[in-house]
Amino acid sequence: MAEVKVKPEVPDPMDIETRIIELCHQFPHGITDQVIQNDMPHMEAQQRAMAINRLLSMGQLDLLRSNAGLLYRIKESQNASKMKGSDNQEKLVYQIIEDAGNKGSIWSRDIRYKSNLPLTEINKILKNLESKKLIKAVKSVAASKKKVYMLYNLQPDRSVTGGAWYSDQDFESEFVEVLNQQCFKFLQSKAEAARESKQNPMIQRNSSFASSHEVWKYICELGISKVELSMEDIETILNTLIYDGKVEMTIIAAKEGTVGSVDGQMKLYRAVSPLIQPTGLVRTPCGLCPVFDDCHEGGEISPSNCIYMTEWLEF
Amino acid sequence: MTQAEIKLCSLLLQEHFGEIVEKIGTYLIRTGTQPLRMIISDTGLLLDQVKKALCVLIQHNLVTYQLQKRGFVEYEAQCKRVLRILRYPRYIYTAKTLYNDTGELIVEELLLNGKMTMSAVVRKVADRLTETMEDGKTMDYADVSNTFVRLADTHFVQRCPLVPETPESPDAPPPPAPTLVINEKDMYVVPRLNLVGKGKRRRSCDEEENGEHKAKKQKQDGESSEPPPDDGIYWQVNIDRFHQHFRDQGIVSAVANRMDQIFRSLPAGYNIVKQVLDQYLTLLADDPLEFVGKSGDSGGGMYTVNLHKALASLATATLESIVEERFGSRCARIFRLLLRKKHLEQKQVEDFAMIPAKEAKDMLYKMLSENFVSLQEIPKTPDHAPSRTFYLYTVNVLSSARMLLHRCYKSVANLMERRQYETKENKRLLEKSQRVEAILASMQATGAEDAQLQEIEEMITAPERQQLETLKRNVNKIDASENQVDETIFVLESFIESTVKKP
């Protein structure tokens, strides 16, 4: 029998790559080197490495690290097409931004740390990506000079823009003030009505309470707010009234399902009058004097020549 | 004793007792307990003067003495007691509201004289009241005694400690200083006196203004020269009882302010139906203020007044009011927020108070510089690097209260100095007006004509009259404000005292 020399089949490089991609599709969580080896045992390590490298540079494979070793994962096809024109570094930066999952945004310094690229490179890449409309820069309310980046189509997070009280990074203090006064007036009129009714004291007190839900409804009906306000927003406004000492709050247990209850509790608010009249010390000039500590008999500033006292006496 | 307190004490002593007493009093407050020799040598006054001054101070309970083991007596000044002089007007006013004019005069006499026997008080008060009554009417001693007994029963006046009855032992020399004792039970026992008589009206004549003449007159009026039956039993004003009363008043008015709608519908008198009473009590107990607490159900419900909490709330309200008046209502919001939440970061303060960041920062720093709020550092790393440390703002009520109390003392001292300055500036004018009045009075007594009287009156020109009016108004204003600051002092002092643990 004639010796038939079996020529070792040199697998086509293209075939290897398609095969690897098929394998990746089979295992979407990623495949290790071992899996590829098992599938194509006749392939040499060098050829395998070359194929994998080509796929990586084309952006069709993701390289991940796990406890077992290196993992290769198929990348989303649409992104792969987008990335065709960009180079490695840009892809890396884009990936980092995408990965900033929970807050949806990331600071430029963090990008630099994660990618280990120099600052100038980062800036260039970020400008590139912005012009390609893949990412955008959002100014944060916390530190207005800090720029955070996020994917183009994501909505900026509440903590970054500040929520209902901020419009374009400016805290709307007049808006808050107006809401403050309106809520207080509502609670005051409710307390007045309760007082007028002159029923027995228990009923009077209970009817002078208003739940946060009632206040919320009232404010919505007033329509003074362009932005829609949630019940929590109203509760923060009512809390500021408590800190002003004009309103007090109690929590009662409410049945689940009653209007306005949260977790079986309801917050009730009531307008109150202050505990004491302005105290004696502040009725004298000394109580409010800005140079109090410098004042002593015989000095430049002394009780005998105090101009605040003179004005006050002429009052 | 702080500088401010010492200054205030010396001002009060000077105004009420004069230079010499003030010198000795201030010396004792500054240096603590001293024997007689030291006082004489350090103040440079004569023995006689020092003795008399010490007598005055002891009579008014401002200085106490103690027999030391080595056999000599040391004197100690009670600084707190001296500061109470500021509160005398309030005591007298309270007595007036509770016991009418009679009570008012009794308390006034006792305060002015330190210690007095009951019969002396009754006599003096009856005389004073008789003067203010219409012609022909006199004040009966019995009425005055009744009011006195009532004051003693409600513990507003109390007996002074007495020399104990020791058996006479001629061998042992009498101790250099007697130790005074008083039995708790006897403190409010009124001696049985048979005070019969009516108040005597002073005949209006020239020597009225001079007190010495009046005393001579009384003696000549045939007062018995025997010692009155209650000689040796002296009475003094019970300051602590008055303080209790003020404190109760403060709490009641605070609760009334908070529950105003309910108080308005309360029927007058105590005829409340039990049901309604129950409801009110429940309301008071449930109120977030927590002044009243329910501590059990025995007897239909046991309710207690939480005094400590009440005092703390009053003091906190005072602090808040001071912050509000000095820095503005936004600062007050931040202050109340910090009081409730105890410790907060800069960012959290802005979020909760809904104040823009720049303004919030500005206000926090201003309050920090005045020591109303303080910073608490919590380091993240062992090297305490500022960029890696948490800084929390917090309010310490007790230390703020102490600081404000000190400020109150200084304010009162300032007000008193200003008042004295104003009076001194216009001394010439005051003397002139006094002379004119004296001339007028004497001329009226001798029956001068209207024309002459008018001539004398015109000695004071119209602008001078205006000046006098202004002066009187200013002095009254300053006086009133001293009393108002004293109210603040009272609230803050009660609070600080209640936090100090008694051993």
TrEMBL record, chain A:
The keyword Transferase does not apply. GO terms for biological process: transcription by RNA polymerase III. Gene3D superfamilies: Winged helix-like DNA-binding domain superfamily/Winged helix DNA-binding domain. Its main location: nucleus. Keywords: DNA-directed RNA polymerase, Nucleus, Transcription. Belongs to the eukaryotic RPC34/RPC39 RNA polymerase subunit family. This is DNA-directed RNA polymerase III subunit RPC6.
